[in-house]
Amino acid sequence: MKRYPVFVLILFVFLSSCSFNKETNYAMGETWSFIVFSDIQQGFGVYGALARQMARIEPGPDAAFCCGDIMLRPANEAEWESFHRYSLPITQNFPLRMARGNHEGNDPVSELVLRQQMEFPPEQFYYTYRTRDVLLIILDTEIAGQENSISGQQLAWLKQKLGDAEKDCCTNHVFVLMHRPLFPRGKYANTLMKQAEELHQMFLQYSKIRAVFNGHEHLFNHYIRDGLHYITTGGGGGVLTHGYGGNYNHFTKVSFYHDPFRINIKTIGIFHEVVDDFDLPAGR
Known about the structure:
Purple Acid Phosphatase, chain A, domain 2, 7 helices, single chain
């Protein structure tokens, strides 16, 4: 029997698995997806590898969303140049939007630079993004004087958008994205978002909310509270947080299928490996 060197067999298995990951989503009934990731903080080698894996996904994602902390230092021109260069596999194929993180800064100069570098509404850093029958609500946890909270005018705006979505027959699913978590599960576990329980109870009133995404903690965590899914996806390149589980570099893929009641979540690493894989309920 002919023998092959071990490295040849390993290469064959690797290439075969890559082909499977890229081509069989159609056969499994997947129709479209979007991407969520967070917390790059100068980890451009890792981020570049993740961006290339995002671009390999078939069918191509509708959009990608960063939950903040692209920056390590606010308004740093070199960091922004690197970010845009390493983001090309994404931006050449589908839109890239973001939620502001604490490392983007909230002083006037940092806010001016942020608006020059990324797309935001003219008056605030929170907004909605619609794709197909999905509404994404991107919140700002870094408003000066209101850090680590969703309050005041933004809270009133959020209630209005959620109420409108509940009544809109063209909106079947709502996802909420922000930088800081309501209920941190890692090293910030003792620093809940201000009014976290009140926000959680408010979210429970809206049946179309499928999940709440955040970054800030450099890990992956999936936390279910009263049936609502909270997902931390902070493995985008920054130094990982160890000791709490989920300490691996990744992005999160949210997939939709011919079956309208199926929504799948996968975390995908720098070698296109799937680490976490679970379905969300399509209704509550």
